[in-house]
Design goal:
70% of the residues lie in helices and 9% in strands. The protein is of the alpha/beta class and 520 residues long.
Length: 520
């Protein structure tokens, strides 16, 4: 099988692999979409409304309790006001009663105070019955008896004749007045003391309810804020990680992580769709770049192959025209020239195929320090022949990288040999391995002390077929191939140089990590 046939076969297999990969990604996104939508929907808006409704209900419950407490206190205070008014009238009536027995005066004033006391009971009958219950009837009966005894004394006093019976009735009335008057005053004062104690107890309870309600409300609000914050901020942090993973090239679709769906599910679906669109657009962009590269490669191939083909053609015509006049040594020399030019053409085509073809990779965990030491050993003969010194430095305990050992050796060998070609005898080349500025990467620097690269050609240094070496010393594909390999490993390659001060090539590679499952 020829190289062209093998290349066509590899290209067809690669295209089929890409199509299969695209189909698998579309299928994975559709499965994630179905899984995300198959859950019961509980929106964040509903959760916020419910949480605030619970806070409102709790506050409303506290308000109802406090209103009931205040109403109870108001009823108690109203009762105390009535009881004080009633007690005041009875006490005043008793004073007039004593004046009557001592001086025979103020009996009408006593009757007037009793009537006012009874009027107080009548006006507040409903309220007093609710509070006193059966006691209300007893007090009413006692005050009626008290009033009747006062009226009886009034009739006796109005009589012109004072008989022994009237004297006896007066004594009985006096005893009855003292008895019922004392009982009414005692009962009224007991009720006042009892209600005052009840009011104090209710006020104390109200203060306790206020304090505990405030503490519980603060705790409830803190828990509610924590709940909502964890829901919102947790999802926000998770989507921030998704964005970082997508930016790093991990296009794994987001799958369900909760038992229900909400607004973040809609966002996850949108992100999955975006991932699919990104991959599609990336494929279109890659295809566009490939088509643009075809022109560049065609021009480069034409230019690189034109010289050896011209040399072969000219030598072949000379050999054909002068064959009879040439001796055997001259013929062999001309044939050797054609073989040499053919080999040069074959090398150009081989390098071009290496640049265009994406060979399969065997990815494994690698120690960059060991890999670079082996690479320097491979280039040791070339370094010795050039009379150049090489210094290798490596930071201890560097994290490992994930890559193909042969491809990365090819990259670093190419950079080291380029540094050798750019240096003169006695110069020094430094190879340094150290942590990169990004904490998730390590860097390899290849520093030479050659003539450097002019600023105006630095942007073209990685272009295919671009070379600063002399004619016949390079094809200009080495850095392009190296850049493709590094990009395939998720890294980047850069160059910094000033004319006359050497050049520094930096390869940055991601450290080995265990990919995490993306869920929402």
């Amino acid at each position: 099988m020829s190289q062209e046939q093998a290349s066509d076969k590899n290209g067809a297999e690669e295209e089929a692999h890409v199509l299969d990969g695209t189909y698998d990604r579309i299928k994975a996104v559709e499965e994630a979409h179905t899984a995300l939508l198959s859950r019961k929907r509980i929106t964040m808006r509903l959760q916020i409304y419910l949480s605030f409704l619970l806070v409102f209900l709790f506050a409303a419950g506290i308000a109802v309790v406090l209103i009931m407490t205040s109403s109870q206190v108001a009823r108690k205070l109203r009762f105390l006001e009535i009881a004080n008014e009633f007690t005041l009238e009875i006490v005043q009536a008793r004073r007039f009663e004593k004046n009557f027995f001592l001086y025979g005066t103020n009996l009408e004033d006593a009757l007037d105070n009793v009537e006012k006391a009874r009027d107080t009971l009548r006006r507040n009958k409903v309220e007093l019955r609710k509070i006193l219950g059966a006691t209300y009837g007893i007090i009413t009966t006692d005050i009626e008896k008290y009033q009747k005894l006062l009226e009886k004394l009034s009739l006796i006093q109005e009589s012109d004749i004072f008989t022994p019976d009237q004297f006896r009735l007066k004594k009985q009335a006096e005893l009855g007045l003292r008895k019922y008057g004392a009982e009414m005053v005692t009962k009224a004062q007991d009720l006042i003391r009892r209600e005052r104690a009840a009011v104090s107890k209710i006020l104390s309870l109200s203060r306790t309810i206020h304090i505990y309600s405030l503490v519980i409300l603060l705790i409830f609000l803190a828990l509610n804020a924590s709940f909502l914050g964890s829901r919102i901020l947790g999802n926000t942090r998770r989507f921030s990680k998704y964005a970082q993973r997508i930016a790093s090239g991990d296009f794994t679709p987001i799958t369900p992580a909760k038992r229900y769906q909400d607004e973040f599910t809609d966002m996850a679906i949108a992100v999955n769709q975006m991932i699919l669109e990104l991959e599609n657009r990336e494929a279109v962009l890659v295809q566009s770049h490939k088509m643009r590269a075809v022109g560049t490669l065609t021009a480069g191939v034409a230019h690189e192959l034109n010289n050896p083909l011209n040399n072969i053609t000219i030598t072949a015509h000379m050999l054909l025209e002068d064959y009879d006049s040439l001796d055997d040594d001259e013929r062999k020399e001309m044939i050797q020239d054609m073989i040499s030019e053919s080999g040069r053409s074959k090398k150009i085509i081989s390098n071009l195929l290496d640049f265009a073809r994406e060979s399969s990779s065997q990815m494994e965990s690698l120690d960059l320090t060991e890999l670079l030491q082996e690479t320097i050993t491979l280039a040791s003969n070339q370094i010795k022949l050039s009379g150049i010194k090489i210094e290798f430095q490596a930071t201890e305990n560097l994290p490992r990288v994930h890559g193909d050992i042969q491809q990365l050796e090819q990259v670093f060998l190419n950079l080291i040999l380029n540094a050798v070609d750019a240096s003169s005898k006695g110069d020094r080349i430094q190879v340094i391995v150290l942590p990169a500025d990004d904490p998730n990467y390590v860097a390899v620097k290849v520093i030479d002390s050659g003539a450097g690269i002019p600023e105006h050609i630095l942007p073209s240094i990685f272009d295919p077929f671009f070379t600063t070496k002399g004619k016949g010393k390079g094809t200009g594909l080495g850095l392009s191939v190296s850049q493709g390999i590094v990009a395939k490993h998720g890294g980047r390659i850069s160059v910094s140089s000033k004319e006359g001060q050497g050049a520094t090539f930096t390869v940055t590679l991601p450290i080995t990590t265990i990919p995490a499952r993306i869920s929402a």
